[in-house]
Design brief:
Layout: H1 4-8, H2 25-35, E1 40-42, E2 45-47, H3 54-67, H4 71-104, H5 121-128, H6 133-142, E3 144-148, E4 152-155, H7 156-162, H8 179-188, H9 191-219, H10 228-247, H11 261-265, H12 287-304, H13 310-320, H14 325-332, H15 337-344
Antiparallel strand pairs: 1-2, 3-4
Helix pairs in contact: 2-3, 3-4, 4-6, 4-9, 6-10, 9-10, 12-13
Length: 350
């Protein structure tokens, strides 16, 4: 996987995000690399379009991010990582984007427009690529969810075609995957590998929601991008993996997070005799339970009342769960922190 912390390291103390390389030849080469080759026609001969060389896009983006901290480059890298490293790569790409927003919102490229009241449109349009069907979502649909030796590799698209939620591609001359074959793959794949896929999907969903919350706090709810199509796609993948994982005794998702059409048809793997983790939340006994409860509330409002601002407040509360009193005070009322420290007095050196 990529070195997220290394990529987040400032370029220099004087210019933490480096220069804007939009007009640098290397940036132009990256932009061209992400476009692939369009379909061409010479007389009666049609040359099909070619996908970008995503490994090359990944390489070029990683090189550029050493010289500049740029959301455009990070987004190109994230799209490439879906194709080269699947769900774990996508999670890492989102982690990089989230880190850039959190650590460098003011100086990160593309810069806010100082001549237009720090207009964030360039940044917002860049990040909207993450919720674009052609640029990102269809690649996630094609990312492998399970790969078993001797059986095959299957994606969310394969599952949806097998269960007739999607039609086969028009140019697909092969047979649609059988549900029983996909079921067999979920049974045969190493449980640790299946759990790792689930963890990557979970991480991707959490990061997508965090990014959306960060942007709403930075630019306001009216200017913030709608990343719900991205979250919806991740949820579909999550639900598709959850059922066979639970049936094999893997870590289960929280209650209320396994609803959805895809799970009505996805075949469950055969039980192994291991107890299935309960997804209920009957009582709150620790901070982890608090976070789970907040996640359930956030999920409810996102599904049932998408226009409500309450998820933003709940997400902020969730970030405060692990903090101590002074850290919470600094987050909620920075001006009151110094007064609280005076009242508390100096900390003991012993």
């Amino acid at each position: 996987m990529i070195d997220i912390q290394g990529l987040l390291r400032e370029v220099s103390p004087e210019a933490p995000c480096g220069e804007d390389l939009e007009y640098d030849p290397a940036y132009g080469a990256l932009e061209r690399a992400t476009e692939g080759k369009p379909e061409q026609q010479f007389g009666d001969t049609i040359i099909p379009a070619e996908e970008p060389e995503w490994s090359e896009v990944e390489r070029q983006a990683l090189e550029l991010l050493v010289r500049t901290k740029d959301l455009r480059v990070a987004t190109h890298l994230t799209r490439a990582l879906i194709r080269t490293k699947g769900w774990p790569g996508f999670r890492d790409g989102l982690g990089l984007i989230q880190g850039l927003i959190e650590r460098y919102w003011e100086p990160v490229h593309p810069r806010l427009d100082p001549d237009d009241d720090n207009d964030p449109t360039l940044r917002i349009n860049t990040l909207l690529t993450l919720a674009d069907a052609e640029a990102t979502l269809e690649a996630l649909r094609d990312a492998p969810l399970v790969s078993a030796r001797g059986i095959g590799s299957f994606s969310l698209r394969d599952l949806q075609i097998a269960h007739r939620e999607l039609p086969p591609p028009k140019d697909d001359k092969g047979d649609a995957p059988e549900p029983q074959l996909i079921d067999a793959a979920f049974q045969e794949v190493d449980l640790d590998q299946l759990q790792a896929t689930m963890d990557a999907i979970d991480g991707s969903l959490e990061l997508a929601r965090t990014i959306e919350t960060q942007l709403t706090e930075a630019v306001g709810i009216d200017a913030s991008p709608d990343l719900s199509p991205l979250a919806d796609m991740i949820e579909l993948a999550r639900k598709a993996v959850a059922t066979p994982l639970q049936a094999r005794g893997g870590a289960a998702p929280s209650a209320g997070e396994t609803d959805g059409e895809i799970l009505d048809d996805v075949p469950a793997a055969a039980p192994t005799g291991k107890p299935v983790a309960s997804s209920g939340l009957d009582a709150i006994n620790n901070r982890a339970d608090v976070v789970r409860a907040l996640d359930l509330l956030i999920d409810y409002y996102r599904r049932q009342e998408p226009s409500s601002p309450i998820p933003l407040l709940l997400s902020r509360a969730k970030r405060l769960v692990s903090k101590d009193f002074l850290e919470i005070l600094e987050d909620l009322a920075p001006d009151g922190l110094s007064q609280a420290q005076v009242i508390r007095g100096p900390e003991s050196e012993n």
